[in-house]
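hey team, just a heads up i'm posting the complex here instead of the shared drive bc the drive is being weird again. everything in one block, sequence lines first with there labels, then the predicted structure for the whole assembly after. its two chains so it's a bit long, scroll down
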Amino acid sequence: MSTRTRPRAHPDDDTTTYRDALREALREALASDDRVFLMGEDVGRYGGCFGVSLGLLEEFGPDRVRDTPLSESAFVGAGIGAALAGLRPVVEIMTVNFSLLALDQILNNAATLRHMSGGQLGVPLVIRMTTGAGRQLAAQHSHSLEGWYAHIPGLRVLAPATVDDARHMLSAALADPDPVMFFEHGSLYNAAGTLDPAIQEVDLDRAAVRREGTDVTVVAYGGCVSKALEAAEQLSGEGISAEVVDLRTLRPLDDATIVGSVRRTHRAVVVDEGWRSGSLSAEIASRICEQAFFELDSPVERVCSAEVPIPYAHRLEEAALPQPAGIVAAAHRVVS
Amino acid sequence: MATAHGGTSAETPKAKRPRRAHGPATASRTPVAAHDLDLLRRMLLIRRFEERCVELYSAAAIRGFVHLYIGEEAVAVGVHQALDERDAVVSTYREHGHALARGIPPEAVMAEMYGKTTGCSHGRGGSMHLFDADRRFYGGNAIVGGGLPLAAGLALADRLRSDRRVTCCFFGDGAFAEGEFHETANLAALWGLPVLFVCENNLYAMGTALAREHAQTDLAMRAASYGMAAWAVDGMDVHAVEKAARGAVESMRAGSGPHFLEMRTYRFRAHSMYDPDRYRAKEEVEEWKRHDPVTGLADGMRTAGLLDTATLDDVEHQVAEEIDHAVRAAEQAPEEPPEDLLLHVTGRYEEAQA
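-- predicted structure starts here --
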């Protein structure tokens, strides 16, 4: 397929989907920098298991859009080696659950080589993968393990939640001197939105306030941002003004934006699709308590996935995940 | 021998003998003599360096895990004869020999053992994580098999740039049991990557004998099944190692894809300084010591009239001086202040501090 037949999902305006925005970002990176190449399972002929790289093989050729064997450890490690040699690889792993097959390479090499070598080596590598539930894919394709990666010094961890971030985070990630984990929530690929022409780049060190409010801060990221916004809309109808902070970068966390918001609202609800125990939500709640304890009017609330492997059955899966109703209820608890 | 290298092409250590026709005794300044003397000097440097490490470890001057290469020197030195400075090397946690053979100065390696800022990893790595970016020495990897995918990536970069460099990856018979070896062997063969797989088969994965970890112990044969040239080499014979490596690298520079060399070797010391060495018979170790690659080369040279006692004494003296200097320099080198603790974690932090 020629990319000329698919320049953009909606060529007449700036409306696009998360998937198409990611593809445009990849195309731009491949076109503008010879050092960039994409590799992973089915990124070429298949077009990417979620269609993100459709057409890129035809446009850039098999050297730069490279199908790999089902060898996560080898091709992630090969990405690390190629980055050491001066290239700028983008490695795609199908899902975060599969990334565990490459966890050794990510932790023991990508995140560690700079330190072990006394600063001689850097690993400018981007590892993209799908995360999250909501599509009835059951327990081995649905987990949200990005919080684990956010535990690791040496990594940057990104979770684009909007079409603008899907479009612009990749170039910033490729400019980073260190390995970047890039988490695409599976439920967002078909999400449509309008690209803001004023946005041409993003600051990876900053969280974004997606909705301003005065009564409660709702902190969310990735697939939960839209749920938080939906909850905020509902709360608005009930006279509660909720501010929604989209973390965007899970490591390093933008404490200033998170805590700054809580200092204004005096209440916080943290939404995290990861399991509650030992989670990113726990880290954020701790930081709020450490930095703004005396400004809180009520204890921090958390809305997380139930502590169960994600089930297949639709009603059970829905029950396992953070939902707008749960966020609304948590907001009521902190505001009351 | 209780535990010999197995498989169809198994070879037990050969009796010491001159490996090449070296010419008359008066030829001590011939290229052959000079080359052999250079090989001997390089192997002796590794041997004496590590013997000093044992002393320093016993004196608590250096700490951590220290894995000695003694007995395997012919592999590092022989393979490096085939590599040039533009090639890349990926190594293991038993890498003092590889690092010294690569040309990292002994004082930089010794300072790393001391955890000093002048160490080749600025003291952040220690014995198991020696690095030298300028010499394209990429560690120093203490996850068994962990360096193999890196080697594929380094070679992929060369392939994409049409550069004729090769990447040499050292690993052991233990790593051959890891999935990462098999994933990487397949990937390298599939993509025709210039990776020289150098498997140092010393018969033991820590304390587990080859036949207790592999159903089929002919590792070269198994590697060949991935579709790459693979053969076994007498790893106690530096000339055999050099010849095999030169042949493989020459072929790889011509674009023939990855090669696999199973170096049949043996470590004379325990797995690490912590290892009481209970899993193998003393007689077995003594038998292998009769095939010591260092004395084997020296005896062969003597028989061929290429080495006299005065010359050997001179080499030993130079090596000892070099190591003395390395130890003195390491002892006097500064330690890194705790205020620098967070350096070298992210490039962004380094930039912010600069």
